[in-house]
Amino acid sequence: MDSKMLQNVTISQTTTDCVQSSICRTKKIEQKNLENLQIVWVDANIDTADANIDTADANIDTADANIDTADANIDTADANIDTADDNSQTKSLLRAVINYLNIFDNTIDCYEYIDTVKDEKVFLIISVYDEKGEYDKALEYYEKAIEIQIKSLPPYHPSLATMYGNIGLAYHRKGEYDKALEYYEKAIEIQIKSLPQYHPSLATTYTNIGSVYNENSEYDKALEYYEKALEIKVKSLPQYHPSLATTYSNIGLVYHEKGQYDKALEYYEKAIEIKMKSLPQY
Q1: Which pTM was predicted?
Q2: What's the rounded Cα separation, in Å, for the pair 61 and 82?
Q3: Is the CB of residue 226 less than 8 Å from the CB of residue 186?
């Protein structure tokens, strides 16, 4: 290749590199803009939720005042009925009671509405902190959310298990394995009692527990929980589902760490077989 041709190739390559670099910078800018838009969207929703809470609070104050008035009316009606000679004052009492009950129902609606709005606000905030990796702040709001759910849901409701699992995951990401296990175990206890035997959510929690033990170098315990997850997935998922490949790979990794290379290869090969049949080639 002569020097002129080499120079052209070099210039072309340099141009290509510049274009690729420009594309990369553009993509980074677009990604940053997307993240900023997401945060703005969440902030806007939080502001709306705050306004709704203020409105609900005002409605509750009005309803409470109406209840006080209804109480006074009932007291008056009670006094009247003691001296009533006909049915007219009895009817007044009944009207006062009905009015009281209607006001009470409206107040309950207000309280239920404000709880709903607060739930939405809490979960929006949690999603932002999770995405940003600010797990301490996420945990602060998870605790608020779980407090709301404990008061409003039955003891073994699946949503409680989901919340406990999310809290466990936050501690897991922080490297606080004991706390992670504490919440994963609360989640699995509820899931065992509230979900079908081979529900995929059980497999997810077993996998998370196995991962904690694996990262803590407790390999036998890790295998125990990965195998529980595998049993559920084998019975609940299609034969070549990608999630099965993940579990086979997890088990292979544990055997790898234990130095049992033949067993590790056995599970790695199962994982790769599923991936070849279930994932796109390119």
Answers
A1: 0.59
A2: 32
A3: no
